[in-house]
């Protein structure tokens, strides 16, 4: 990095990392004097690290709970919390040939051998999947396998070990086989993905500038293309 | 103090650790023996191969095993045909993964133990009519019991602490493939620190006690007994 | 019977190259300086030398041929007392002794049972001790017992008594000698003490630089080959005699050595029993007239058959007494004073006679 | 083929593995020596303690180390005072974490190597005037070189494959604390399989070659040289 | 000087309990049956017995007192030839020999340098070999050399030549004897061959069950204590004589043993030089008249001072020849025939005399 460059380090939940990566590339092209470094892990891990003093400038969480908790703990810059995207849940049936809609989905799920979801305890997409299954009165689901996060959930299906599962719409580009169906928004509570700027950041100004970029039209288009809904 | 799933996780972990250790204690001695005695050119290559699981991060090892276990792969589909169930997300898959993962911990101490057995004693035993099997059971095993204990405890401990491979292969199914390490990490991730701490404390105390007992008992019989004789 | 025809090279500096047939029954002593290849020879028979080339045939069964091992060494039925005791450190003495009992039945005729071994080697107080608690000599005895109890076909002993004290050594060699008489397998016994071999061996091999220098019947060898066997001070003749009668008052036994007789300490053998004796050359003096009023009981007469000068101004005189020969070591000065020549009749004063063993 | 961050990850990993191995090879021999020779009552307890890092899942071990290293804890704040930087999320923190994590792999092979050195040779050396240090450098070390090599390669390999502890303590900061295992996992997680496969292949090939060389060289000098003499 | 007052228990079955002062200069032989505690004694001096109780004082410096080690064993400046060679397997012979050179300067007066050691022990062809390439006897010689080169204060040797052949043994003991004369430190030499000790020792300790049975000057002990030292067959007197002159034609040397003289093989010593001789009792015969025309050169006369019956109907006769005593072993029958009694004058025919060494 050039001496005059400002470096901001962003902790980002794994699911949003590819998208944020694209965004930061755009951003850096526009702002040559800034460099954005991404550090990704599961939301829970990042949260723990931030609580223990991790040197990040901002935190892109996969939920709204952790940013709020950090805000309560006084670790975030006041009024910096934004909702940058809404996660969208998709059902992927790998071996399924027919079309899926709200009438057939329950039958399909009942017949599925192994259903892969993210761990509801640790991943917001998992919680959403659980709400969907509850709505269909399929909870507790007997043949459930749980990925640690949404990426692992996809891998279980991708590698053929699970037949179907609830994944993120942002992952659609990786799905080459079978059928997908976007779950109606009403079936689960919105997956509100929020971000905050951390108080201990040395580069609040630059970070704030990046946050402004995230809310720009250009950025919103990229986020939308990646498969997220935009905050109202 | 513990939820039912925690207790199930403890049971599964112990079962997994015991079975893995047992199987490794059958599998590793022949490999270690061969490695410690062969003059073959491929020895050092096999040695390196055995050490490989150490180098691949467990999660990555788990990922590749997941590919291997998939019904789309020859191995996974053969297993499916034979047993009617997949390897992934099943206990047997965890066992296989753990065996891969802990193999170096079984082979290395045994190999160095075997290597240090005085060759003169082996010669004495064979001239006394001991077949290779008898040499093993009556001379080498008793003289390297210490290495066996070390190998077994390392395997056991390492399987208990295993996380990445199980995370990838197990699918975190409570009561079936959810082991302590994953339950514990789940607690940490979901901010249930109290439960995490208490599970960790029990794990540490239990393991410490077991190891202490093993090492303590073994030490009793040790002293300088085997030294300076030949 | 054990037939050898072997060759082995140890990195340029040493080559073993020999052929020999070891007979069953009776001990073959193997004698030679340090580094002459004695242990290597035994290792070849035991199958412990991977580079061996040649044939090892035991009782018409090929154990080794050219570079091929045909009988694995644990199937050879050996007993091997190594030069180092090599006791199993994790087993106590008794378990060391009975180590081979799990797979070898050891029913070969004449072999000793465990009670005999423990008794003769005096191991009973040691049975529950572990090897590191034993003294050097005690370890060696246990190693000897362990090998004896495992032997089925051939017994190899590499300086088995080198760390044992003289008294035990005497007792043990006497027992081993008896054992070798009743247990008809090849016995190979390495020692660098010629007297030990005189006491127990029937045949002798003298090795030097990996080759057999001399080999043959001990009795005949001992009269020919002093230069190999011993320092001049230790030369001596081996004689065979027969018990004639006993004088219990003086505790003497009269032996017949052909035409003449000798008095020796009371022997525990019946009349007619053959015995082997050693007469050290330095203990025989020559006299032209029959000596009188002397404490020497044994005075023989014979004819000088050879006068061989030794290093150091002494002369080894061989005297024929009937069929057998007696050696006398005298000084050059005495030879000149008495003007000894071949064919001359002389009296021999025999000061000491050692009973070696009852003969075969 | 590799991105700049991948290359940085490789560099950091090698640096971490080398430094950790070096430090462990200084730290572990005294512990192993003490363990293999002491008659002290606490021996078996210390032995169990050394084996502990095996049992705690690495992520959990990392979690507790993170708590320990945090500026809120006495240790973390003391370090901050002394050096001006935090332990967590810094290279020095990774080194300390790796040392904890790999300690058993250094101590155990050394301990069993030391234990098998013929006590008679040590006695001979001391009567010949060798001080404890000389006994170590001139007798024990040459006789247990094999155990040292095993210990060092295990530590090295294990540090290269380390994932959980580093993830927790290091925070996956590219160019600073992101090691190969994490970069690799990142690729897997972001479903960049091509990059993941190529990084894994390089890792495996490199490690295999290094191990092969180490074991191969060592085997050359081995043979049955040390046997049946005493 | 090395003063011991020690006690050690080995688990009920064995207790070592002794006090002794070992003088500097000259070898103290330690003799005793297997398991009598010889090796344990040396281990106590070397600091290798953790349970030792008592004091070990060397040159007024406490090495051990009660249960406390006061001088660590690597600081004791020992040379210790263990009963097993214990060569370092990772070092070749030369490196084994020079092992101690890194920290010991070995400048004590009279100590041999490495060239002397290699030459006298015949190690030069072995220097680059590794221990597993050596024969048993070769290993033992290297172990002996290694200890000699490390010694500063006390030399402990535990059966250092048990695996060495007779000829080397003769040469090495002769050298060790000379060395002990010029190198004034305490030398302790364990052996179960009394003749080895006769050749080199100045003092002798006879051990039995962990205790000193007998101790003292070798010359006087050897005349008193046959029952401990040797089987009756090996009894013998040690004599001290002085070289009077040489007969180079016959290769003989005349020795003065007080009032009378003996002829022995030519000795390489100057006139006036004192020598130590052994006269085996079985090689001495008694005669009432002076024997004539015999090959025996040495005929002494003396007076019977003691007639001691031995087991087995033989009698050990002690005859005073001036100041010194000669022993003769004869049969009961000869004694009766010649009607021998104390005080009777007799002629002694001495068939063999062994030169043990030049004396101190
Ligand atoms: N593995 C080996 N490599 C090279 N040379 C060897 C090896 N083993 C033995 N030798 C050499 O072979 C020769 C014969 O050794 P061997 O042990 O047979 O002698 P030995 O007659 O038993 O002597 P000793 O009476 O001292 O035991 C020695 O000179 C020795 O150096
Ligand atoms: N560590 C030990 N524990 C128990 N007993 C022992 C131990 N070491 C030696 N002994 C006993 O002490 C006695 C003396 O042993 P030591 O080795 O001193 O005998 P030694 O006189 O050297 O005999 P050798 O001539 O056979 O070498 C033996 O009876 C032996 O059984
Ligand atoms: O935090 Mo995530 O985005 O669970 O995968
Ligand atoms: Mg030998
Ligand atoms: Mg001893």
Automatic annotation (TrEMBL), chains B, D:
Record key words, sorted: Cell inner membrane, Cell membrane, Membrane, Molybdenum, Transmembrane, Transmembrane helix, Transport
Compartments where found: Cell inner membrane; Cell membrane
Protein name: Molybdenum transport system permease
Domain ABC transmembrane type-1: 10-214
CDD domains from the UniProt entry: TM_PBP2
Domain of life: Bacteria
Function, as annotated: Part of the binding-protein-dependent transport system for molybdenum; probably responsible for the translocation of the substrate across the membrane.
Family membership: Belongs to the binding-protein-dependent transport system permease family. CysTW subfamily.
Membrane topology: Multi-pass membrane protein
Cited InterPro entries: MetI-like, MetI-like_sf, ModB_ABC
Annotated source species: Zooshikella harenae
Principal place of residence: membrane
Gene3D superfamilies per record: MetI-like
Pfam family for this entry, one: BPD_transp_1
TrEMBL record, chains C, E:
Annotated InterPro entries: AAA+_ATPase, ABC_transporter-like_ATP-bd, ABC_transporter-like_CS, Mo/tungstate-bd_C_term_dom, ModC_ABC_ATP-bd, Molybdenum_import_ModC, Mop_domain, P-loop_NTPase
One of the record's GO molecular function terms: ATP binding
UniProt-listed Pfam families: ABC_tran (PF00005), TOBE (PF03459)
Residue stretches making up the ABC transporter domain: 1-234
Claim: Kinase is one of the keywords in the record: no
Residue ranges of domain Mop in the record: 293-359
Alphabetically ordered keywords of this record: ATP-binding, Cell inner membrane, Cell membrane, Membrane, Molybdenum, Nucleotide-binding, Translocase, Transport
Official protein name in the record: Molybdenum ABC transporter ATP-binding protein
Naturally occurring in which organism (per UniProt): Zooshikella harenae
Lineage: Bacteria, Pseudomonadati, Pseudomonadota, Gammaproteobacteria, Oceanospirillales
Gene field: modC
